[in-house]
Amino acid sequence: MEKVIAILLVLFVYSFGFSQDINQFDENGKRHGVWKKTFKNTNVLRYEGEFLHGKEIGVFKFYKNIRKKAVLTATRTFNENDNKTYVKFFASRGKVISEGKMDGKLYMGEWKYYQKNSDKLLILENYNDKGNLEGERHVYYPNGQVAEKQNYVDGKLEGISTWYASNDVVLKTYVYVNGELHGESKFYNSMGDLITEGRYKHGKKHGIWKYYENGKLKDEKNFSPEGKYKKKTLTKKAPKK
């Protein structure tokens, strides 16, 4: 009996001592050391990480409560000097969905998104110091071929945007100015043959749009205010007998 009491006492002291090593505050009331938090009214872990006098350091792990189990959903790697972190988001089975840098809640620098069923890139994009998209943004097919290529300036589309088939054939091109469709657009079939071309002006079709069939001009449609939506068919009709 005395041995049992002694063992229970040791376990109590050990568990009490361990509990005192987490979720602690320093002399100024700031979180310090290892912290672990659970979802409300459960024993399911919500996050765990380490604080240095109120500042997160090292790797923090964040979880979802799925069927009463803690499932890793994200990690954030902190440094001691600022709020910048390297972040990874995970699917419920542990696969990395996306990763990149954050400054507080703002995305910054290069961000990578991955294909659902492989570790190949799905999207590659960049953010400026304000958290807005900046520079080229690429979307990829599962085979690694570029599917979309766009350019951003401070969060707004700018310049030529191009869409591709999985065999690298151009399918369509747009021109953006300050986030708005403005300029020449072209559309192609899967063989790369031009099928439609025209211009946008401040987000709306403008001027003469041309439609092709088998490489030949078939129809035209005028989207200018003076000839709005007027369609001109160029295909010759067979003479009546």
UniProtKB/TrEMBL annotation:
Residues covered by region (Disordered): 220-241
UniProt superkingdom: Bacteria
Family annotation (SUPFAM superfamilies): Histone H3 K4-specific methyltransferase SET7/9 N-terminal domain
InterPro entries documented for this protein: MORN_2
Positions with biased composition (Basic residues): 229-241
Name the record gives this protein: Toxin-antitoxin system YwqK family antitoxin
Organism field: Flavivirga amylovorans
